[in-house]
Amino acid sequence: MTLLTVENLEAGYETGQVLFGVDLVVEESELVSLLGRNGAGKTTTLRSVAGAAEPTVLGGEITFGSEQLAGVAPYSIAQRGLSFVPEARRCFPRLTVRENIRLAINHASDPKDLETVLDFFPELSEMREKQARNMSGGEQQMLAIARALAANPQLMLLDEPFEGLAPYIVRRIEDIIAEINDQQGIAVLLVEQNVAAAVAVADRHYILDEGRIVESVSTTQLRENEEMRQRYLGV
Ligand code: ATP
Question: What pLDDT score does 90 carry?
Fold first, then answer.
């Protein structure tokens, strides 16, 4: 069954339009990536779906399950089962791991319990009384994903989850995303510059170029098509 449908999405900022008719779908339990060069509009697409204050959605339709999301407030979108992990990995720096996850649990309409969440993150479980500000970038990214998982979503949106992380942490977070998807059946739409990591974790890939989806390909198709990778991704 289709979980998310984005049709002809147009969006932009005061400085100008960025998306010129984005079309994509995410099926239930699917793990999909959205790739593209710097400035292609990947973050803008995710933020439009999550209902963020910026960008402004200028046209098109965003359907989640059977509901229209356009004009729905972000907290309300989250309560309907869509969790967004922004690029900045927003955690509360002075709160501990446990307190950060607790807050996410308290704000959700049908949350998971703390231990179920921590089962996916043994590293965090061991540092549950540590303040987020004293954790590494990779640990903070895990905490941001743990907070999203606590809301018990049907779909997780991840904005560049691997950005700025050391290769061994990238592999660890790839594994966590795959496990959450596999064991909990949570669909994932992730935006990435790191094509290798996206290919390692997602089954299907959209390529965004200048605010439009130009390709929808399987991992095998992307691996075998160097010309496509060069043209749209520069790798
Ligand atoms: P990146 O990896 O660089 O974030 P991206 O594909 O995610 O790339 P977006 O962040 O969606 O791209 O940006 C698309 C365009 O929108 C860029 O030209 C960018 O400068 C512009 N843009 C992004 N955020 C804003 C903003 N808050 N105000 C004005 N313009 C913005």
Answer: 78
Which atom belonging to ligand 1 lies closest to the Cα atom of 211? 14
In this prediction, residue 151 carries a pLDDT of 95
Helix (H) or strand (E) holding 219: helix 219-224
DSSP code per residue over 64-81: ETTEE-TT--HHHHHHTT
Tell me the C-alpha distance between 28 and 114, whole Å.
24
135 phi/psi in degrees, rounded to 5: -100, 160
> What distance in angstroms lies between residue 42's CA and the mean position of ligand 1's atoms?
8
* Look-up of token digits 């990536």: 33
Mean pLDDT score across all residues of the chain: 94
Is the peptide bond preceding residue 55 cis, with omega within 30 degrees of 0?
yes
Nearest CA-CA partner of 165 in 197, 201, 187: 197
**C-beta contacts of 13-17 below 8 A and 24+ residues apart:** 13/54, 13/55, 13/56, 17/58, 17/211
Residue 191 CA, closest ligand 1 atom number? 7
Q: Is the pLDDT of residue 89 over 80?
A: no
Q: Is the CB of 43 under 6 A from ligand 1?
A: yes
ipTM of the complex: 0.95
Measured at the CA of 102, the angle between CA 98 and CA 104, to 5 degrees, comes to 125
Ligand 1 neighbourhood includes 39 CB (under 6 angstroms): yes
- In the chain the domains, ranked by start, together with CATH numbers, are 2-89+154-232 (3.40.50.300)
Distance 140 CA to ligand 1 centre (A): 23
Residues 6+ apart with CB under 8 A from 175: none
